[in-house]
Amino acid sequence: MAEAVFHPPRRKRRIFDLYESPFPVDVGGKAFRICQAEIMNNNVIVRNPEDIEWLYNKGYFGKGVLSRSRPVYSISDPSLVAKWQGANINMPIITSKKYQCHVQWTKSILQEQGFDDCSVTKILENYTKPLELPFLEEDGAEQTSNSCNRMGPNTENTELSRQFSTDTGNVVALSPENQKEGYKKVCLEGNPVFDPVATCGSTEQERGDLEQMAEVFCQKHDFLVPCDCKAKESTEQRSCDMIKPKECAPEYVLVQEEEEGSLCPEDDSAHAQENLVKKEKLVCRRNPFRIFEYLQLSLEEAFFLVYALGCLSIFYSEEPLTILKLWELFSEVKPDFKTTYMAYHYFRSKGWVPKVGLKYGTDLLLYRKGPPFCHASYSVIAELVDDNFEGSLRRPLSWKSLSGLNRTTVNASKELMLCYLIRPSDMTEKEMSTPECMKRIKVQELIVTRWVSSRERSEQDEL
What we know:
Helices cover 32% and strands 18% of the residues. The chain is of the alpha+beta class. Helix 3 crosses helix 4 (117-127) and helix 10 packs across helix 12 (337-349). The two termini are 20 Å apart.
């Protein structure tokens, strides 16, 4: 058998990340952090944004449910952010069409809860009405004068406007007063002080409608407003509990709306029609249907963080699960979990970054430093065998399937690796019921290489 040669990983062309510590553990006297996750539909989900950032940056654990890999999803439209970058706005910007989709989603949910159309319309009108933008002064001090009056839904002050000529497409300059206000940094999201419903900008009826809307979301749609509300609690208590978590705070967005007007409304001539301008404005509103970015951990990643590093606590039905319970539960959810986790644990201990290899038809993909820096070097298939390399293989391969899998792997600039986990013949199932069985497991790696006759002939000729 020929000895395998390690090939350097193929680096990516554009790298925007900085390489940090490979594991989320206490290094250099820093405070040790224990993250929290929960099991949802046989998946391990991390909700806390700080835990998400910590786990992904320290070892690239998990994947964003709404992102390609790194959890960076944002409701904001990048094209609109670039368009309004001169206004120095620190809030998400979306189109009016996208905002109306969120309103329709909320409307359908309320209708499914049994609300009539009149109540649904009233609730949404009160919740999505324009809000005033609280700007900051030049020195960073916040404007606090006439705070109660400023909280009202004054649509004239909520619009950061741009005017585009339909003839030339040039931007009409804003007035000095508008520029002074428009270029000041917005500081609104997550601050209940500027919530007109929570303070002095709403009537008692409006408060009741919004509390009723919050009650509906808390009962059956905790993914919208994920708070710990109970059905027997009062509406006032629910509304207070909603403000405590960061996810439960209202999300403020700037909606780009368009309206057309005439520069000469008294003139009905064709020249007046040519002078029609397209006015685009940003209106501050609350988002009625929030979408959160979560970090989804594979079963192998979750168990490694719990068992090997001890920096993750997994809950199910609000109760933490022990290591033995997780080993048993994950083995029920995924019958070959023990085999794949042993391979995952082995390669992680060797300094590799294993990720799920489902898209290439394998168990694992091995990255040298991490997905942001290099392409995967190996596609791994894990098998659990005995001392004689015998046993019921979880994935028996024929020559045809092995050749096709190897060709797919080579075309993606990777190498196919067979990882054999060798268990002693005297190991019982009782020993396999705990993760301590890994102490007696041996590992044999085998790299599958395609033999090319013409290449071999040319090498022999050179010799």
